[in-house]
Amino acid sequence: MADLQAVPEDWSSALVVVAHPDDMEYGGAGAIARWTAQGKNIAYLLACRGEAGIDTLEPSVSGPLRVEEQIASCAAVGVSVVEFLDHQDGVIEYGVPLRRDIAAAIRRHRPEFVIVSNFRDTWPGGGWNQADHIAVGRAAVDAVRDAGNRWIFQDLGLEPWNGVRYVAAASSPLATHAVDITDSFDASVASLREHKAYLAALGGDMAEPEPFLRHAAEAVGERFGGVLATSFELLSL
Q1: Is there a contact between 122 and 169 (Cβ–Cβ < 8 Å)?
Q2: From the UniProt record, which GO molecular function terms apply (predicted)?
Q3: pTM
Q4: Whole-number pLDDT of residue 86
C-alpha cells in the first residue's frame, strides 16, 4: 500500500456529519481533538439519535441516553455544538429529504471542511458497512454541492454556501490521507469511553476503547511515518 499524505490543515471551520452517536469516535475523534486544540471551530450533525443501537433498551430510553453520551463525547474532544436530526435509526434513507437537512446545516454553519464517516460498501478490514453509514455519507457529499446552489432548497431561506474546500471520509478502505494523533490519542479514547451504555451492551473488542483505538492508530501509522494516526479519504468534488 502507498504511504498516506497529511490531511491539509489550512482551514478554520468544519462540520462533522455522521449517522449515529459513536460513529466518529470509532475513526476520526483523535483528529477532531487535534484540530480543536489548534483553535479550529468544529460542529457535529447527527442524522439520528441512535435509538435502535442498544438491544437491551427500548428506543424511547436509548435515544435520549445516547444523545447525552454523544454530547459528553464531543466535549472530550473540544466540541460544544452538537445537533441531531430526526431520521429513524437503522432505516435512514438516502434521498432528497436527507440531502436537504444536511444542506441546511452546511448553509447555517458555513464550514470550510466537511467530515463524514466511511460510506464505502466495506471497511478497511473487509467487513461489510452498515446501510445508515452509507446513506448519510453519500448524502452529505451531495449536500455539499446542494448547499452551494441557490436554486436548490430555496424554501430554507438560507444563503448558499460554496466555501467547502475539503470533504473527507474517516476510516475509508480507500484512504488517501492521515492525521498524526499522537498528542490527541488519549482524548480520542476518552471520547469513545463516554458512550458508556453503548459500550456496555456492545461487548467484544470494540467495547475496549484504548486497545481497539491503539491497534487501529498503529496500523494507520505504518503508512504515515510510524506515528499514531487516523486515516481519511480526501474527496475531489
Answers
A1: no
A2: hydrolase activity, acting on carbon-nitrogen (but not peptide) bonds, in linear amides
A3: 0.97
A4: 96
Given the C-alpha cell 498503529, which residue does it identify?
218
Domain count, the chain: 1
- Would you say residue 198 lies in a domain? yes
Please report, for the domain that includes residue 155, its CATH number.
Answer: 3.40.50.10320
- Note whether residue 164 is domain-resident: yes
Domain residues for the domain of 59 are 10-235
Structural domain includes residue 4: no
Q: What is the CA radius of gyration of the chain?
A: 17
46-73, pLDDT tens digit by residue?
999 999 999 999 999 999 999 999 999 9
In a domain, 1, yes or no: no
Residue whose cell numbers read 500500500: 1
As a dihedral over the C-alpha atoms of residue 91, residue 119, residue 166, residue 220, rounded to 10 degrees, the angle is: 130
Which uninterrupted H or E stretch holds 31?
Answer: helix 29-37
